[in-house]
């Protein structure tokens, strides 16, 4: 609730300050910059404001009415109603994550459960309370690795098959660390970039090798060998994962990865025009002291009753500001809760079912699209729920056609991979079933003829 | 706890026990007492690393603080006491028996600038101990 000050209160404060007017308070600001006239339209009452703003919102296209084949990092999954109804409970619904154990046992318990679920999903031992988004988590993983080697290993290797936006964020995020070198090896791009192109560059100066799983083009690789080779050189390995895929696939922990990060948006969080999303990071136990952000631990109080508190806080900014691996303390409390509710509702079996549906739908689509004249599926088997298709005309042209039919088309790859001309990245989820894939294929077929 | 007479001490509360051209270094009883329960020792250096006098060679975390450990003299790391990684509380229980590093000393004359036990005790008393 907004509680304005009364005139009497204003007067009281001014008196205490020894001033006569609010204007006097700003006397240090040069006259010409003080209280400039603002060219604003006249005020509106609530009824008109609502009508006005809703008019804007109607110009939006929503996945409630449209079928969405757009992915490339954010995915249109079905969100069970229970997620929102738990999320909006007054006990949880706050912009700021309350950490004081005396008053926040419920919040701390859900964060602890979130960490546990992320550990189960990745088969790694320690997870933090979450980050802003997947790209932030990826950047924090780089800092974790750099700090693990006390800055002595200065090279971070990023696979060219990592989401280009993630790579950009990593570059921006690490720009303050002077002596760090971030390398991405691009092979000749006659086909899709090879995620193993970085292998030859792993050496004794490498702190971290980062790959995406499934990669940006949907491909699934077993990275066990790459991880082993990296470990032989003493480097750490981080996998950027899609949490839904882990319902079905071999986990980062099973492959021997040291760190796993990812975007938690597919876990019960709406697309919402790009955020708020949810970053997660998990690591082997040995790295827990270098893990960024907050950690919640389970303990007992003096009466032996179970309770939850922030733990290992000396690693971070409470009392260790300048020595901390990272000073990031914000988590995405509500989004982490959404993911926790989503995973708890689905359980192990449900996660596997969703994962399998995505996989099956993508494979059905790949098989159908491959039969269309002029279209070619570039993503080889095995792949998860995204595929690259090469179109006979521009992606823009095809997407325009699809949009007219109520379909959000795929991601145009040419903008970030110039050699992938007329290539589109399509994503499939449990929502894009056989019926809508058939519609997609019919429109694709037509789009070629004009 | 009485301060061992065969050690030398720095103003940042590290001790050094010299044996020929090598030495052990650790933290004093005063330091562990100030830090309270020590929960983590992080070694900033590896074996064979060279370090300068006053360089940060390790960080010690307790339940209420994190403190840098400074090299009392310049040298080279010969050994790291890895038992402290799993048992950091040894630094509380037995500060003068729990060494952090075994080092080779570069310049023995640097030892002259350090305090003996009696001077260090007075130094601690002046700080309210």
> How much helix, percentage-wise, in residues of chain A?
25-40%
Query: What proportion of the residues of chain B is helical, as a percent range?
Result: 10-25%
Strand order of the largest sheet of chain A: 2-8-7-6-5-3-4
**Largest protein-protein interface:** A-B, 7 and 13 residues
Structural class of chain B: alpha+beta
Number of H/I helices of chain B: 4
Measured between the Cα atoms of the first and last residue of chain A, the distance is 57 Å
Radius of gyration of chain B: 13 Å
One letter per element, helices H and strands E, the order of chain A comes to HHHEHHEHEHEEHEHEEEEHHEEHEEEH
Low-pLDDT parts of chain A are none
The largest pleated sheet of chain B is described as: 6 strands, antiparallel
Work out the strand percent of chain B: 25-35%
**Number of beta-strand segments of chain A:** 15
For the sheet with most strands of chain A, the description reads: 7 strands, mixed
Order of helices and strands of chain B: EEEHEEEEEHHEH
Gross geometry of chain A: globular
**Low-pLDDT stretches of chain B:** none
Give the strand line-up of the largest sheet of chain B.
Answer: 1-2-3-9-8-5
Tell the overall outline of chain B: globular
Structural class of the secondary structure composition of chain A?
A: alpha/beta
């Amino acid at each position: 609730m907004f509680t304005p000050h009364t005139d009497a209160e204003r007067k009281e404060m001014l008196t205490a300050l020894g001033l006569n007017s609010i204007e006097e308070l700003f006397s240090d600001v040069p006259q010409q910059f003080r209280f400039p006239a603002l060219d604003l339209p006249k005020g509106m009452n609530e009824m008109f404001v609502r009508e006005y703003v809703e008019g804007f919102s109607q110009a939006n296209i929503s996945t409630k009415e449209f079928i969405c084949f757009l992915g490339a990092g954010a995915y249109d999954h079905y969100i069970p109603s229970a997620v929102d109804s738990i999320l909006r409970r007054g006990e949880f619904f706050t912009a700021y994550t309350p950490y004081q154990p005396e008053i926040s046992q419920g919040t701390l318990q859900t964060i602890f459960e979130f960490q546990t679920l992320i550990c189960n999903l990745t088969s790694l031992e320690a997870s933090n309370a979450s980050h802003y988004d997947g790209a932030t988590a990826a950047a924090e993983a780089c800092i974790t690795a750099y700090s693990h080697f006390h800055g002595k290993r200065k090279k971070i290797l990023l696979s060219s098959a990592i989401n280009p936006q993630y790579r950009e964020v990593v570059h921006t995020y690490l720009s303050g660390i002077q002596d760090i070198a971030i390398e991405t090896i691009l092979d000749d791009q006659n086909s899709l970039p090879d995620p193993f192109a970085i292998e030859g560059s792993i050496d004794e100066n490498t702190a971290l090798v980062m790959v995406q799983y499934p990669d940006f083009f949907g491909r699934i690789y077993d990275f066990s060998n790459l991880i082993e080779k990296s470990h032989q050189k003493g480097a750490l390995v981080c996998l950027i994962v899609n949490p839904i895929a882990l319902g079905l696939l071999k986990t980062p922990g099973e492959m021997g990865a040291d760190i796993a990060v990812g975007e938690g948006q597919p876990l019960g969080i709406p697309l919402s025009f790009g955020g708020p999303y949810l970053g997660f990071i998990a690591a082997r136990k040995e790295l827990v002291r270098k893990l960024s952000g907050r950690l919640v631990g389970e303990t007992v109080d003096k009466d032996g009753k179970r309770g939850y508190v922030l733990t290992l806080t000396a690693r971070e900014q409470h009392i260790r500001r300048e020595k901390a691996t990272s000073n990031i303390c914000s988590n995405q409390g509500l989004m982490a809760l959404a993911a926790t509710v989503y995973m708890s509702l689905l359980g192990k079996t449900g996660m596997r079912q969703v994962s399998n549906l995505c996989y099956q739908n993508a494979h059905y689509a790949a098989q159908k699209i491959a039969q269309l004249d002029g279209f070619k599926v570039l993503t080889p088997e095995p792949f998860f729920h995204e595929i690259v298709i090469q179109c006979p005309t521009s992606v823009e042209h095809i997407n325009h056609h699809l949009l007219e039919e109520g379909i959000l088309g795929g991601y145009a790859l040419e903008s970030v991979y110039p050699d992938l001309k007329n290539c589109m990245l399509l994503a499939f989820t449990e929502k894009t079933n056989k019926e809508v894939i058939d519609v997609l294929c019919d429109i694709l077929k037509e789009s070629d003829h004009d | 706890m009485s301060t061992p007479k065969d050690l030398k001490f720095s103003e940042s509360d590290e001790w050094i026990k010299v044996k020929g051209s090598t030495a052990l270094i650790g933290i004093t009883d005063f330091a562990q007492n100030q830090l309270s329960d020590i929960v983590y020792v992080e070694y900033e250096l590896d074996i064979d690393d060279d370090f300068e006098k006053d360089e940060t060679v390790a960080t010690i975390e307790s339940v209420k603080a994190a403190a840098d450990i400074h090299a009392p003299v310049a040298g080279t790391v010969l050994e790291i006491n890895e038992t402290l990684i799993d048992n950091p509380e040894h630094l509380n229980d037995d500060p003068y028996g729990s060494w952090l590093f075994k080092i080779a000393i570069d310049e023995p004359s640097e030892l002259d600038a350090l305090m003996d036990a009696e001077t260090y005790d007075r130094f601690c008393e002046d700080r309210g101990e």
